[in-house]
Amino acid sequence: MQMSFFKSSVLTLATACATLAATPAAAQSYPDKPIRLVVTFAPGGSSDALARAVGKSMSEGLKTTIVVENRPGAGGVIGMDVVKNAAPDGYTILFATNGTHGIGPALYPGRKTDPVKDLAPIGMLHTLTNVLLVHPSVPANSVAELIAYAKANPGKLNFASATALPRTCSVSCSSPVPTSTSCTSLTKVAAPRCPTCSAARFR
After folding, report:
1. Which one of 93, 111, 127, 183 has the lowest number of neighbouring Cβ atoms within 10 Å?
2. Are 185 and 194 a contacting pair, CB within 8 Å?
3. Looking at residues 9-17, what average pLDDT do you find?
4. How many CA atoms lie within 13 A of 122 on its CB side?
5. Quick check: 36 and 67 in contact, CB under 8 A?
6. Which alpha helices (H) appear in 77-131, and where do they start and end?
7. Please, what sign has the CA dihedral across residues 181, 182, 186, 191?
8. Alpha-carbon gap, residue 162 to 178, rounded angstroms
9. Do residues 10 and 121 lie in contact, with contact meaning Cβ atoms separated by under 8 Å?
10. What is the pTM of this model?
11. Which residue has the higher pLDDT, 197 or 101?
């Protein structure tokens, strides 16, 4: 199976902006109840795995329960809305990615939740390298060759991804198959129901 590394993902924690204005008294007693860590992907993928590892460390350091809550869908909008609409008390935190704060806003500027204005960053956690995979039957050995092949054969390729790569590269796929995790994408490529997909690799 051929692969190509093509971009980095930045993972951060973010919470409602108003949390920054918390009173000193509230800050001294924080946290005194469980904290929700909202992940915009389904269980089983790289973001979910990292969020659970981070949640475990946070729980040990803060001496409280960290509840990982998966809210996949709509390019991260569902999860971001959960955090935006939660009480701004620091008990609902978003596990943000380049999808929620970079790709999504660029592709869908009309979304109600603005990750920059409505959410405040807490810190960067990790970086990931995404991987573009193709089935051996696809005659492409590089990203450039794959894009050229897709453009020369519009509607012929299926593409499985939790991101919007076909739109980003301006290529036509017959059936873009959205998936909730990179693991699901890999399964579909191996089938091969979808000859191409993207997945993530820890760096």
Report:
1. 127
2. yes
3. 66
4. 20
5. yes
6. 77-85, 98, 104-107
7. positive
8. 6
9. no
10. 0.68
11. 101
